[in-house]
Specification:
Shape: globular
Number of strands: 35
Radius of gyration: 27 Å
CATH topology of one domain: Jelly Rolls
Strand order of the largest sheet: 9-24-23-22-10-11
CATH architecture of one domain: Sandwich
Length: 823
Amino acid sequence: MSETKPQIDIDFIIENATLAEKSNLLAGHDFWHTTPLPDYNVPSIRMSDGPNGIRGTKFFNGVPAACLPCGTALGATWDTMLIQEAGVLIGKEAKAKGASIWLGPTMNIQRSPLGGRGFESFAEDPHLSGMLAAAIIQGVQSEKVIATPKHFVCNDQEDHRRGLETIVTDRALREIYLKPFQLALAHSNPHAIMTAYNKLNGKLCSQSPELLQKTLREEWGFEGATISDWYGTYSTSESMAAGLDIEMPGPPQWRGRLLSAAVSAMALPMHTVDARVRSVLQLVKRASECEVSEEEIIRNTPEDRSILRRLASESIVLLKNEDTVLPWAEIESVGVVGVHSKAATYCGGGSAQLSPYYVVTPMEGLQKFVQKIDYCPGAYGHQLQPLLGPFVKSNPGITVTFYNDPYNTPGRTALEVVEIADSSFQLLDYKPPGANMIFYASMTGSLTPEKTAVWDFGVMCHGTAVLYINDKLVVDNATQQRAGGSFFGSGTVEELGFVELQKGTRYEFRLEWGNGRTSTLQRLGATTLSNGGARLGGCPRIDAKLAIDEAVQMARAQKHVVIFIGLNQEIESEGYDRTSMDLPGHTNVLIDAVLDANPNAIVVVQSGTPVAMPWASKAKAVIQAWYGGNELGNAIADVIFGKVNPSGKLPMTFPKAMQDNPAFLNFNANDGRVLYGEDIFVGYRFYEKMEKEPQFAFGHGLSYTTFELSDLEVSSSDVQLIVQNTGTRQGAEVVQVYVAPVQSYTCRPVKELKAFSKVALEPGEAKQVNIRLDRNATSYWSETQDAWVSQKGEYEIFVGTSSDRIMLTARFTQDRTVIWRGL
């Protein structure tokens, strides 16, 4: 039998704890833990990122974890039951990493394809986002792990995100950006919420009484705890009075002694402190009921691998399939084009990064279905030089050795030696034992090139770094540093150098690094990461034209060809936004050339958000495969060879060009603020209102079978219809229900998603589908009445399989106008 845990007596603590004890309780103890009060049986509770898995307590050299597909991939499943299963998996992973609070899900809205963290969120649509968030929260909290939806609210870009002022109308705020949180609270019960970095209409979100008290607690009845984003607390008294419960991370910058001083100076009443303390103690009490592992452990069970494969395969969206090019039957050989086929693009960058249990690359997935594979890398498609891990064949591989002295100090003593998986490290939450405030490291390894070639190397860092190859200086990123967006906005751009390496010769590389405090950059608004990090990349230089010609020759010789292209965690990442929708390098030229040589070649795109596809009309088959987590390669192969019938639907609109996007003129920060000028017309709402055709519409996704919708019956609270699989394969279809008033006294979108249901059917099978509607389906936010208004009158129901493929319509009448607030 396990020992009974001592009870936390909240009222007793509030009555008897000292002001200093209460003040400390309202901030983190360290990077991942709450502050304990041992004299009152209050334990320290561990929190952990990230949105697609549980990293544990280490960015650096962390314990491997299950990596789920990215948020947009989960959004593409449109499957609340499956997403709830994903939440259960996250809950179990959290307990294995000793964490009882999960810092997720990410619920911000994709205003633009360029948002650096767009891949973390579910959708451009608030209803889809809110319902999927509710499902994953239910799954996580069924394991008694606390979910923390984030970032509350309008943290929809990375450019100047710390303190950027978001200017948005009350109506757009309510209908688009707050709505996912409102729905998540209405359909689940998250016990914590994370505030955003930014300002909202003049007030920082972490110290906004309108958000945290008036809307969240009073109107919505939220009874959980509010937690700041990391280093997202900006005041003492203001944040306390507004309702921010916990400053993270610790040790505190604004609480602790500053909080005690504010109370002593009567700048903050004691009852406000006690209210925040009560909220924190309730959170800790609830979290302490979760049985977690004392040590961070690896699970990696067959059951986990099975659900990870389902999540990845059911997220895949078949964008095009002309002439029924897919699925492939059993074939003897295949031509594979693109370095993405061998790349493990399993997640985006920033807080989403973790060390995966394993990753199945697309090439490895294909090898399980076909014996003979011809491979051509084609032209490179990287934005940063690729990490060196795949090139390092020696044992040990890449090591990092920490010191208190710089590399030119004779006889310096090593503090710690760590073998790492790849040529990048980030000491966000780590400091080697015995290290001074300023410390150093050497990252070393060896390369033995298969061909003689000029190699290009790139170094970026938070701190200072110089690269030596066989003791020859190749890159200097220490003497004159240039600011970039790396390392959460604290790092440099990538500085480049080159050297010719001979075939079969072993070369030793050595990156000499000084921690973040050695940086020469002066940055405003960068996250405080004084320990810093470094990234070393490199690869042999190739002639793009020759590489494309080689791929073309192979494509002509092969009947079956697949082109793997996309983005990666260096391009889509927390800390900075993308600069364009374009694929990097010569990727588009490569695709065009291969399609000219073999019109039946299929294109597989891996990205978290839309990319420009100028070749889309030429390609017969296009697959959107996202960042698929551990099982990405198996999932892609399962769909290509028909083991899985694709059922994913786009959770966001794919525009033809960046200029078509509704946020095109109002995305980047402009003198410290961003204007949400598209108002409520986000995503498909804009394209339909403007009658502008996108590349692929919201909700779009094809199948290897066909479906028919019929017998629609509607009322103000119900939608009923028959869905039949009229094809020859088992498959699943997403029934999408959109609503619009026939007449309205205010400007409304053409139609809005208000319900959906995913239905699995055998060939020839038909099912009746019943979908409930609630008052959200007919309501808009009235700024004059400061409330939701559901107008009386006629409403049209549009039922289809995508926003641009409506198959059934009907009308119902609402007899009276209803004005309401709350959930």
